[in-house]
Design goal:
Belongs to the complex I 24 kDa subunit family. By secondary structure, this protein is of the alpha+beta class. The chain is built from eight helices and five strands, in the order H-H-H-H-E-H-H-E-E-E-E-H-H. It starts with 8 loop residues before the first helix and ends with a helix. Bound molecules: FE2/S2 (inorganic) cluster.
């Protein structure tokens, strides 16, 4: 993924050009842009509209209908909490309250230091091991409040390169 605060015009242009003639091109284009840029930049909307011969309002309509599309750059790490039934039955509600308090943000927001974006998701395919969350590309099951705190500590200390002193990282290697 590119720098999350800047989007790559050339890459977005290429994605639109390569998909615009496929049937139902709007969603694949939006997914392609978000997967590579981290979000759908507002300036990409007129480009998509022109390529698909649709209005900007129509493109905006699709983006806002599917809540999974972001219109602002995400933080360095994206945390998604499963809000579907099986995870709710296993304590996801208490976990999400803890996560919001820990990060000081609500869903679809990013921490002030740009470290974490918090999003809801509805089933990660890990139902038997709920409550489940996804942190960037990793799905984590049986997440307790303590386990979540360890994950956050791990992610916020890695940049300091303290691996030999970090018990969580050592535990993972064992
Ligand atoms: S219900 Fe949470 S992973 Fe399926």
């Amino acid at each position: 993924m590119t720098n999350r605060t800047q989007w790559n015009l050339e890459q977005v242009t290429q994605i639109i050009a390569s998909l615009k003639d496929t049937p139902g091109a709007m969603l694949p284009i939006l997914h392609g842009i978000q997967d590579t840029q981290g979000y759908v930049p507002p300036d990409a909307v007129p480009m998509i509209a022109e390529a698909l011969n649709q209005t900007r309002a129509e493109v905006h309509g699709v983006i806002s209908f599917y809540h999974l599309f972001r219109t602002t750059p995400p933080g360095k790490h994206v945390v998604q909490i499963c809000r579907a039934e099986a995870c709710q039955a296993r304590g996801a509600r208490a976990l999400e309250a803890h996560v919001k308090a820990k990060l000081h943000i609500d869903y679809n927001n990013t921490t002030l230091d740009q470290e974490f974006t918090l999003e809801p998701i509805y089933c990660l395919g890990n139902c038997a091991c709920g409550p489940s969350i996804r942190v960037d590309d990793d799905i984590v099951g049986r997440v307790t409040t303590d386990k979540f705190d360890l994950i956050v500590d791990e992610l916020t200390t890695v940049a300091l390169d303290l691996a030999p002193l970090n018990p969580v990282r050592q535990e993972k290697k064992a």
